[in-house]
């Protein structure tokens, strides 16, 4: 007997699979609710997945109308009836939405209803496959929420930077300039032998003003909207690295240029990495490379300096603030950041940030 | 000896205004007629004193340096204008020049530069 043969441990072969074996398969599936409706929408079969997902045992649900799975707001608009009509018209209907379990709680369902016709074209009923997508939906929503929060965070950080830039520009720099002017007045009024000390002090004040101006420059918003990321990086490099006697190259291997707060985050991490090169590396060149990798942007900032600039990074607790800031920015945006010595000497900072918006449609 | 150049200082930052006052009055050929801290004061004091030189900040409460420059030129046509500003960007410089400012000095310039610039603007 074919039926008992299939069940008694001998291998399953296509020609041996009869309807009852196939029914066992359907009944045993627990990841999907698979059941059938008669032409009027009443439930005529039930499987283990349906019991697990919807919470009804077969004897509780067989014979009832499938609209019992729909929440009141869908009943009010006769969604169950409309779905059956659509399945009859198109052969098949797919929908995602809230459905009710036996205990009245809701789950987010992916539903496929297939109209089943006999060879004469008579409607025999419907096959219905339902998947519980609640967990996936929760994950998707958590991701969306995370993007929203990161976006707010970046916006708040940028606003704060702008405020600090204005404060430094309008207050700290002005005060230091006034101090410098008074020191020069004092120097002019002093006997020759005391002038050098005051002049040195004035020189220090002058350097401080220069440093504060550089700080304002670094704090100000990058012109990403007007220039795009790569050109904004190039302009910033051109403005800032000549001060450190550095040459620079930019390799633009991007297939897609990041925008919005992802671009801002990339720019701010880049600034910090570059500041480290300027402060610590004793390098003569800095190379910046940007590429599109794994649905995100990979940035590499490498110098040919003395290396070891990131030694602190390897010992927990001794990271300097810039390192922590870079890594936190990258990780908050869902990416990663790393730094290390280059094999040929120098230091390399690499970081990757995912795209947060879908690829724009090409016309 | 020529009479001293009469200078009006317009800067909302008290520390800068006072320091500038002291730097300029230390020169025997320069006299500060007033220090204005707002746009409205700057315009009123320029009209009242008709100074030889007005030293303007680019941003002032109640109106920017451009507005002040235009008003002073209208109300006191003999007053010559120079900017003394913390704004180092080219756009600010161009705007002030278009408003009739003859020289643009960035804050942080030495006292000697400031004094020389005031003389150049006032005597030419």
The proportion of residues in beta strands of chain A is 15-25%
**Considering DSSP H and I runs of 4 or more, what fraction of the residues of chain A is helical?**
40-55%
- Strand runs of chain B, count: 5
Mean pLDDT of chain B: 91
Order of helices and strands of chain A: HHEHHHHEEEHHHHEHEEHHEE
Q: What are the low-pLDDT stretches of chain A, counting only 5+ consecutive residues below 50?
A: 1-9
Written as H for each helix and E for each strand, in order along the chain, the element string of chain B is EHEHEHEHEH
For this entry, what is the oligomeric state of its chains?
A: heterodimer
> Distance N terminus to C terminus of chain B?
17 Å
Instruction: Sketch the major β-sheet of chain A.
Output: 5 strands, mixed
Strand neighbour order, sheet with most strands of chain A: 5-6-7-9-8
Could you say which structural class the secondary elements and strand pairing of chain A correspond to?
A: alpha+beta
**What is the general shape of chain A?**
elongated
Summing up helix and strand content along with how strands pair, one would put the structural category of chain B as alpha/beta
Helix content of chain B: 40-55%
Shape type of chain B: globular
What percent strand of chain B? 15-25%
Q: Helix count of chain B? A: 5
Q: What is the residue-averaged pLDDT of chain A?
A: 87
> Rg of chain A to the nearest angstrom?
34 Å
Query: Distance N terminus to C terminus of chain A?
Result: 61 Å
């Amino acid at each position: 007997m074919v039926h008992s043969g299939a069940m008694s441990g001998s291998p399953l072969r296509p020609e041996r699979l009869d309807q009852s074996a196939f029914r066992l398969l359907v009944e045993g599936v627990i990841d999907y609710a698979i059941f059938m409706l008669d032409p009027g929408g009443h439930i005529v079969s039930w499987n283990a997945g349906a019991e697990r997902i919807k919470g009804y045992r077969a004897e509780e649900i067989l014979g009832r109308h499938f609209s019992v799975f729909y929440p009141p707001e869908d009943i009010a608009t006769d969604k169950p009836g409309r779905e059956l009509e659509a399945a009859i018209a198109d052969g098949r209907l797919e929908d995602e939405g809230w459905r009710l379990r036996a205990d009245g709680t809701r789950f987010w369902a992916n539903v496929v209803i297939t109209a089943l016709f006999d060879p004469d074209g008579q409607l025999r009923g419907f096959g219905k496959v339902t998947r519980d997508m609640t967990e996936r939906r929760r994950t998707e929503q958590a991701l969306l929420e995370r993007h929203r929060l990161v976006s707010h965070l970046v916006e708040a950080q940028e606003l704060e930077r702008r405020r600090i830039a204005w404060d430094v520009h309008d207050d700290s720099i002005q005060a230091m300039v006034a101090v410098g002017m008074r020191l020069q007045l004092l120097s002019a009024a002093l006997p020759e032998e005391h002038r050098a000390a005051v002049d040195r002090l004035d020189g220090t004040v002058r350097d401080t003003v220069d440093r504060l101006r550089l700080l304002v420059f670094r704090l100000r918003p990058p012109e990403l909207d007007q220039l795009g990321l790569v050109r904004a990086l190039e302009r910033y490099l051109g403005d800032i690295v000549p001060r450190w006697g550095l040459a620079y190259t930019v390799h633009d291997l991007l297939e897609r240029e990041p925008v919005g707060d992802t671009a801002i985050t990339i720019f701010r991490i880049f600034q910090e990495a570059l500041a480290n090169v300027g402060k610590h590396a004793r390098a003569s060149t800095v190379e910046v490379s940007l590429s599109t990798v794994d649905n995100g942007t990979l940035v590499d900032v490498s110098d040919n300096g003395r290396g070891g600039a990131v030694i602190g990074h390897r010992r927990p607790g001794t990271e300097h603030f810039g390192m922590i800031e870079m890594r936190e920015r990258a990780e908050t945006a869902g990416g990663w950041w790393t730094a290390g010595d280059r094999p040929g000497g120098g230091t390399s900072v690499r970081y990757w940030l995912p795209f947060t918006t879908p690829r724009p449609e090409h016309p | 000896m020529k009479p001293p150049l009469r200078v009006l200082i317009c800067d909302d930052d008290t520390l800068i205004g006072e320091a500038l006052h002291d730097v300029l009055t230390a020169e025997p050929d320069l006299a500060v007629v007033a220090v204005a801290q707002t746009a409205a004061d700057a315009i009123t004091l320029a009209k009242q004193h008709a100074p030889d030189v007005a030293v303007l900040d680019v941003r002032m409460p109640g109106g920017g340096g451009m507005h002040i420059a235009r008003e002073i030129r209208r109300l006191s046509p003999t007053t010559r204008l120079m900017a003394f500003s913390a704004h180092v960007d080219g756009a600010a410089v161009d705007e002030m020049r278009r408003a009739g400012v003859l020289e643009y000095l960035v804050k942080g310039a030495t006292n000697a530069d400031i004094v020389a610039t005031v003389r150049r603007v006032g005597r030419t």
